[in-house]
Amino acid sequence: MAQKLFFPVIETERLTIKPLVTGDADSLLEIFSDPEVMRYWHTAPWATIQDSLEFINDSHDSMQRQESLVLGVYLKSTGELAGKCMLFSYDKESKRAEIGFGLGRSCWGKGYVYEAGEALIQYGFNSLGLRRIEAEIDPDNQSSAKALENLGFSQEGLLRQRWEVNGVVSDSAMYGRQAITLHSQAMLAASACCGR
Fold first, then answer.
1. Which helix (H) or strand (E) holds 61?
2. CB neighbourhood size of 68 (10 A)
3. What's the chain's Rg over C-alpha atoms?
């Protein structure tokens, strides 16, 4: 049962979110070799099909070790791979993980990040038992900042000069979202009742 937790198939209205397979290598390379897609990542754009295959294999291995979830985001209407979403840096004892996502440019601005992100977050809270999910982005990446805020994340800090890629140094904005527990719900209800 625990093994299946790290190889889920999650359905939303428009998307299927499931583990990547070797047959996705060409589509992944098309998405993540695009400098615009990779603009705010802390790695350079992918260059060869080997980059895709290594990513798929490494993702599968990390899921086997129950260290992360790395899932493809597929459009139900066409079966096309739109991108990927991840829960990584999974800490079972502390019940926390980090979220990340990346979509091909043709899928930008259609609400897929919110749809896939919320489904993955709910899976993390409800199935993996996470208490907290974190995200780290380049502060200049306003699209990701807006997406995280729409997903209920709050900016919690700024780490200066955290990354250097190809000679470019960038800061990191840190975001977090906590699971709503019964205790949290009771506190919110009490605050609302007391007019706070």
1. helix 49-64
2. 20
3. 17
